[in-house]
Design a protein that fits this description.
Number of strands: 6
Shape: elongated
Distance between the termini: 51 Å
Number of helices: 5
């Protein structure tokens, strides 16, 4: 290919299954990788929003489909492992997905609270924890998953010791 510009990628330009099958296969393999290098937890974070309900076997890199990923884990994935992971971090706690008009939203019950909290009300650390367990319990995990500094929101008493 002689007309490839310096800023173009071979993986986007060479996608002909007859002439560049290896590059096409490589491109599709790379697309399936997930890099969870920073989950936003601010008030406008994608993981805090309601989302259209659909099966989501792999959490999006930005966590925008958190409620759908949790619903999929509960329906076809590792429901018991999800419940255990939530209860380990929040004794007496549970997570569920509320469905309303085709939209999904997280609901978390915690011991001592009179009503469930939705994703907008969760602490940054709680939201990040739920995002991480949704990524790790995906029914169809990606062939490569990178979690960058997953301990950044853990309470100091729960962080692994250095050295």
């Amino acid at each position: 290919m002689t007309d490839l510009r310096a800023y173009d990628s071979m993986l986007t330009q060479c996608s002909d299954p007859r002439d560049a099958a290896e590059l096409l296969l490589l491109r599709e393999n790379l697309r399936s990788w997930r890099f969870y290098d920073h989950f936003r937890t601010d008030s406008d974070a994608p993981g805090r929003r309601r989302q259209i309900g659909t099966r989501t076997p792999i959490l999006a890199s930005d966590g925008a489909d958190l409620a759908a990923a949790i619903a999929t884990i509960q329906e076809i994935g590792a429901e018991d492992e999800l419940a255990t992971a939530v209860a380990d971090a929040f004794p007496g706690g549970s997570i569920d997905v509320r469905q309303d008009g085709g939209y999904f939203e997280i609901e978390m019950r915690q011991h001592g609270l009179l009503r469930p909290l939705d994703a907008a009300e969760l602490s940054d650390g709680t939201l990040r924890y739920l995002l991480l367990i949704a990524a790790l319990l995906s029914p169809r995990p990606p062939p490569l998953m990178i979690l960058n500094e997953p301990e950044t929101s853990l309470h100091p008493c729960c962080r692994p010791s250095a050295g």
